[in-house]
Write a structure and sequence with these properties.
CATH architecture: Roll
Helix content: 25-40%
Number of helices: 8
Strand order of the largest sheet: 1-8-7-6
CATH class: Alpha Beta
Number of strands: 8
Length: about 200
């Protein structure tokens, strides 16, 4: 049996020619009429912080604090998407209601108990996102009453879906120069209206 191998040649680079690190995908100021991909956290290039559904919510909160993020992707042991959990989920009314109704201690509450489960995520298709604008994403989040949205990409050969991206209203606001509250539910929607008003005023 003949085994074919591909020969790779090394080469020299002039010492005066710099070799640079590949540039990171930095956030930049954007307008509402720009492509939606400009405000999407693309998981093909950007890392995502994950947590097990069996972790306690206080452990999840510490992960957020150390990583400097407000959202964790919940994956099971097989790296399958189970849901999302945000700082607002942990610090809001969900744990209190669970403690009151379920009569359990806070340190017994697990991520799975208060996360947004996969069934409630209603993901966006990467194909649709590629044809959408930032304004379209803002209006979609506003209509759904959500601060985050996940984007999935379908592998046509295996009929499998992959988690490809995440939209966050706080990131969109940051890139549009509008401060968005991620802690107060009512204020978050007021911030939404500010984004939409900014959009309309520019269009007029």
């Amino acid at each position: 049996m003949t085994v074919y191998t591909y020969h790779l040649d090394t080469f020299q680079i002039d010492p005066d020619v710099p070799i640079l690190r590949y540039p990171s995908r930095e956030e930049r100021q954007i307008r509402e009429d720009e492509p939606a991909l400009s405000v999407m956290t693309d998981l093909k290039y950007d890392s995502v912080i994950t947590v097990s559904p069996d972790e306690t919510i206080d452990t999840a909160l510490q992960i957020m604090i150390h990583a400097g993020v407000r959202l964790l992707v919940v994956l099971d042991a097989s790296a399958r998407l189970m849901g999302l959990i945000s700082g607002r989920d942990i610090l809001g009314e969900k744990p209190v209601n669970l403690m009151t109704k379920g009569k359990i201690r806070r340190d017994e509450i697990r991520v799975r108990d208060i996360m947004i489960p996969r069934a409630g995520l209603n993901p966006l298709s990467l194909h649709d996102v590629e044809h959408a604008t930032v304004k379209d994403i803002i209006r979609t989040l506003h209509k759904a009453g959500r601060l985050h949205a996940v984007v999935v990409e379908k592998n046509a050969e295996t009929d499998t879906y992959y988690l490809r991206g995440i939209f966050s209203i706080t990131r969109i606001g940051r890139q549009m120069g509008v401060e968005i509250s991620a802690d107060d539910h009512a204020q978050s929607f007021a911030d939404f209206e500010q984004l939409l008003a900014k959009d309309i005023s520019k269009a007029g």
